[in-house]
Automatic annotation (TrEMBL):
A Gene Ontology molecular function term of the record: phosphate transmembrane transporter activity
Lineage: Bacteria, Bacillati, Cyanobacteriota, Cyanophyceae, Nostocales
PROSITE patterns in the record: ABC_TM1 (PS50928)
NCBIfam families, alphabetized: 3a0107s02c
GO biological process: phosphate ion transmembrane transport
Protein name in UniProt: Phosphate transport system permease protein PstA
Membrane topology: Multi-pass membrane protein
Transmembrane region(s): 33-58, 79-103, 123-148, 160-179, 209-226, 233-252, 281-302
Protein family according to the UniProt entry: Belongs to the binding-protein-dependent transport system permease family. CysTW subfamily.
Pfam families: BPD_transp_1 (PF00528)
Length: 310
């Protein structure tokens, strides 16, 4: 610091550039203030998160056991469990991923690799970016009209399929944007080298571009699915119920049956006045967090696996 001040004084004295003020001390002080502000913001966020986690774990761990995981919902808090909502969330997750991943990745590849740069393409890009910021309740209203009412002969109304289609709409813009950004990060020299060797565009995408972009695409997809599994508002609008004492069949008829999910069940328990149901809600939150942690761990594993040197 002393040496820098001396150099600053020497430069000012020499008159090398009188219009330029180094102000080393002032800039270092501003840097310290900014560092302290970021530490305070980070510490505050971690403190709030720690308080929430401790409160949930304190209320929910005592209720969390095997019987809670394998029991259906009940009017008696001591007998209620999360079997139906847990299976319903897994059902929704699998169907949503099966619908949104091929559609989102395909749309991202087309827009980034095939589409021409014109006003129509730019209009689509702007709309996709705007759709990613639309509140989830709007998607719920759209799903209610399209998938529950218009497509009732196929979805049978308020069913697992209608809920999964609504959640697919919710995360589709995020997957498209993630896919485009991952493809854009691949050096353009690989495409030019492929064309120079006589390969067509699809061969270049399949053999060179897509495998390199796949870790980023998978990470974005699984993180968007993590958002979908925690959504409550669109599922309430679509018609998920809070009291179910059966599991959907593993068939197409099962997709057309009524369903519930962990966020719906937690919301139902929290809205009741009995303290015992609040403890059930805390235990349900713990189960939901474990599912989310498993999904995030899967994302990290897949990213590290495909990032290995080819």
């Amino acid at each position: 610091m002393t040496k820098s001040n001396t150099q600053s004084t020497n430069l000012s004295d020499s008159g090398a550039n009188p219009n330029f003020d180094l102000s080393i001390n002032k800039r270092y002080n501003l840097d310290k203030v900014f560092a302290i502000a970021t530490w305070v913001a980070t510490s505050f966020a971690l403190l709030v998160l720690a308080i929430l986690l401790i409160d949930v774990l304190t209320d929910g761990l005592g209720r969390l056991n095997w019987s809670f995981l394998t029991s259906f919902s009940s009017r008696r808090a001591s007998s209620a469990g999360v079997l139906a909502p847990l299976v319903g969330s897994i059902w929704l997750l699998v169907i949503t991923a099966s619908i949104s991943f091929p559609l989102g990745v395909g749309a991202g590849i087309f827009l980034e690799e095939y589409a021409q740069d014109n006003w129509f393409t730019r209009l689509i890009e702007i709309n996709i970016a705007n759709l990613a910021a639309v509140p989830s309740i709007i998607y719920g209203l759209l799903g209610l009209q399209v998938f529950v009412r218009v497509m009732e002969p196929i979805t049978r109304g308020r069913s697992v399929l209608a809920g999964a289609l609504t959640l697919s709409l919710l995360i589709l813009p995020i997957i498209i944007i993630t896919t485009r950004e991952s493809l854009r990060a691949v050096p353009d020299s690989l495409r030019q080298a492929g064309f120079a060797l006589g390969a067509n565009r699809w061969q270049i995408i399949r053999e060179q571009i897509f495998p390199i972009a796949l870790p980023g695409i998978l990470t974005g997809t699984i993180l968007s699915l993590s958002r979908a599994i925690g959504e409550t508002a669109p599922l309430i609008v679509v018609g998920a119920v809070g009291f179910i004492t059966f599991l959907p069949q593993l068939s197409f008829q099962g997709l057309q049956s009524s369903f519930t999910a962990l966020p719906i069940q937690i919301f139902d328990w929290v809205s009741r006045p009995q303290v015992e149901f609040h403890q059930n809600a805390a235990a349900g939150i713990v189960v939901l967090m474990i599912v989310l942690m498993l999904m995030n761990s899967t994302a990290i594993f897949l990213r590290n696996k495909f990032q290995q040197p080819r």
